Fold this sequence. Notes:
Layout: H1 3-19, E1 31-37, H2 56-64, E2 66-68, E3 71-72, H3 77-86, H4 117-123, E4 127-133, E5 171-175, E6 187-188, E7 191-192, E8 199-202, E9 205-208, E10 214-217, E11 221-224, H5 232-250, E12 256-261, H6 288-309, E13 316-322, H7 345-348, E14 349-350, E15 352-355, E16 364-366, E17 371-372, H8 375-383, H9 400-404, E18 414-421, E19 426-433, E20 436-441, E21 446-451, H10 467-483, E22 494-496, E23 506-508, H11 517-521, H12 525-529, H13 538-546
Parallel strand pairs: 1-12, 1-13, 2-16, 3-17, 4-5, 4-12
Antiparallel strand pairs: 2-15, 3-14, 5-6, 6-7, 8-11, 9-10, 13-15, 18-19, 19-20, 20-21, 22-23
Helix pairs in contact: 5-6
Amino acid sequence: xxxxxxxxxxxxxxxxxxxxxxxxxxxxxxxxxxxxxxxxxxxxxxxxxxxxxxxxxxxxxxxxxxxxxxxxxxxxxxxxxxxxxxxxxxxxxxxxxxxxxxxxxxxxxxxxxxxxxxxxxxxxxxxxxxxxxxxxxxxxxxxxxxxxxxxxxxxxxxxxxxxxxxxxxxxxxxxxxxxxxxxxxxxxxxxxxxxxxxxxxxxxxxxxxxxxxxxxxxxxxxxxxxxxxxxxxxxxxxxxxxxxxxxxxxxxxxxxxxxxxxxxxxxxxxxxxxxxxxxxxxxxxxxxxxxxxxxxxxxxxxxxxxxxxxxxxxxxxxxxxxxxxxxxxxxxxxxxxxxxxxxxxxxxxxxxxxxxxxxxxxxxxxxxxxxxxxxxxxxxxxxxxxxxxxxxxxxxxxxxxxxxxxxxxxxxxxxxxxxxxxxxxxxxxxxxxxxxxxxxxxxxxxxxxxxxxxxxxxxxxxxxxxxxxxxxxxxxxxxxxxxxxxxxxxxxxxxxxxxxxxxxxxxxxxxxxxxxxxxxxxxxxxxxxxxxxxxxxxxxxxxxxxxxxxxxxxxxxx
Length: 558
């Protein structure tokens, strides 16, 4: 056997044993910190293309960890947040393309018996926390009134429904919709922060905050009189800092999990004048968007410094990533086509760095295989040795071995990206299969096929030159939509389950029959056991099924 190959294999096995605890086992599990940026694309950070904004803290994170060059979210905010927290593709949630803000039904995107990554970690003995932007739904404690989100409620006796507190987070300080939509307020474990007589209706437009800062309201709605978007990131950092101090003082023997969801760099772009230490932020780069990218790096630096000062940095798994591609402004993407909202790589390929000292290699790059935000769930589960609930994380594939070694097998070979917006008439789907990527736009009746290994910029449409691959991927996309995704077909025949504890078991899902839709709606187990929507969105599925004949090539069904 080749000596170099043997040595490489031995090193890989040893690293794997260390990770899984067979070697170097300790009594305490690692802490876990997930930092999620908002609207930050690969072009905005070092290592992918940013040459404008200085980001020493992200660079330091890369130097100490593993940088994944082929990581993916969805192309929009809320679906990606559910994807990360649930380990599912967005279609498995309450609505096929995400639950976003406070809504009349009071629902979050979590559906049925699904449990969040925070709930999973609580079963592993973790104290869990969340700071920043929630944005996957929720409800009011009283009667729903869109114009009076806050003033119509009894906050003395009520709290928000279906928020972080209801999905596994012990401690949370958050805004429901980030900085871009009402209510313009923070909530602590679901309770409104502030007094009811401090509620104010904010009109759309520019304002001066009580602190004297220039702020902007994108959509009119209620909030607190002291709302100040320029202070958003600094405020959630201070709350996270207090959580860590409290944890060290009162729970030193327990590991902690923190989901830190930044406001940067979503619009409105209102950077603070200065950072904590007086460092200038607003005006630093002559553009608010770039200034917020700079502040993002400062916040990350503060988090890392806190971990170093409290001697926790070596015992913490740190992940930095983003909810979707970057915005179409300032720094054109030198490599990728498209931006936030696009099916092109620039819409959903995101920065991703993972650090775990003395376990993961330092300063390495992974570009051999692709991963998704949904995979964080199973990966963390492997690192902390916690069994995932059979009703949860159906689409999560662990990339632990790949993080340890670039020679590991691919974590996944298939990845879907869907987008559906009724009001804008956008119905799009993309499927990554190995190095190939297939895109379909159902509204514009347009398709494309790209080989990302040779054409990362998606400039050469192979639709006419690689007909065999094109036709194969079209068939796979429809089959995935039917069997694993949005559009289930009736399943009166027996088949094997593919996920959960009953994987490989032969079953008959009779509740997929056309005449039993009502049964599907109230039987969430159908979605889990049969790995699809259980008929909850048949009306929507007609769009995807009926469109086949309108495209130039028919599917090969056999």
